[in-house]
Design a protein that fits this description.
The protein is an alpha+beta fold and 287 residues long. Helices cover 55% and strands 17% of the residues.
């Protein structure tokens, strides 16, 4: 075996173990993933690997993803069996210890257990280890844009569970519900009351294809755009925040995301791009 290759792998071992542990939440499984990574490296032509660190991260990520998916097919281990932190002897590097203290704990592991395998991997690799979405995308079989969306959704779920939020979800629901009612009733003055005077409406190419301007500013113009035109819209949670969706034959066509500031709608984003619609998290709400 090439001594140089062994040395380079050992230089990356602690980082790979940290990545695997944060994805899997289990020290024994993390060790198994790292060992499998070494086996795959030893069987590969190292001369064709330009960036060994990136290659190893990609491989250990794929192995962890496979392990997470396999885990879904059998009963989950109770979270209490997961160690809340790696032993000091296992992570001797001070930088890794700092990351461990900030990002790995029982509370985070509990939240990560609620994510899908792709969400968990995308969040850990990008947010905790700064792996670019261009490298994450092929691991989960998505485009970089879709990988970014998946990580964003996971991040909102993690933060929503572990951190207080500055956004009042109840108040946003009230504002969006009032907007929907005024739009359905063609209540122009009601729309003006709920819209910020400088509200901005943005539509991607998929949404703009159904009519309307890609960008529109000002309460009067936005109110005119929606007055009497939202009969088919439904109230939903859009990636965890109150919004609207226009459905056809049970499939979403346009998603309405709202930015609410001081009790008024400051921005509306209409999204109809097929890739976005495939990955957005929509949960029906009662009005």
């Amino acid at each position: 075996m090439d001594d140089w290759l062994v040395l380079r792998f050992e230089e990356n071992r602690d980082r790979l173990r940290a990545v695997a542990y944060r994805i899997l939440g289990s020290e024994p499984e993390a060790e198994d993933a790292v060992q499998e990574t070494w086996i795959r490296l030893s069987r590969s032509d190292s001369a064709t690997i330009d960036n060994l660190g990136g290659w190893l991260t990609t491989v250990v990520g794929r192995i962890c993803l496979d392990m997470l998916r396999a885990r879904r097919g059998r009963p989950e281990h109770p979270v209490g069996e997961h160690s809340p932190a790696l032993a000091d002897a296992v992570v001797p590097d001070p930088e890794l210890e700092a990351v461990q203290a900030d990002t790995v704990g029982l509370a985070l592991l509990v939240v990560l257990e609620t994510l899908s395998p792709a969400e968990r991997l995308a969040f850990v690799l990008h947010d905790l280890f700064a792996v670019p979405f261009e490298e994450i995308a092929p691991i989960i079989g998505k485009s970089p844009a879709a990988a970014r969306q998946i990580a964003s959704r996971a991040r909102r779920r993690v933060r929503g569970t572990t951190e207080p939020t500055d956004v009042d979800v109840v108040r946003q629901k009230e504002v969006v519900t009032a907007f929907l009612a005024a739009a359905r009733e063609a209540n122009f003055s009601g729309l003006l009351a709920v819209l910020d005077p400088e509200v901005v409406l943005r539509a991607d190419a998929g949404a703009a294809a159904y009519g309307g301007s890609p960008v529109l500013a000002g309460a009067a113009g936005v109110a005119q755009q929606f007055s009497g035109r939202a009969a088919a819209a439904k109230l939903v949670l859009v990636d965890g925040m109150p919004g609207l969706v226009w459905m056809r034959r049970g499939e979403p066509l346009i998603v309405f995301s709202f930015t609410v500031v001081d009790g008024r709608v400051a921005a509306i984003d209409l999204r109809g791009d097929a890739e976005y619609l495939e990955n957005v998290d929509l949960v029906p709400m009662k009005g």
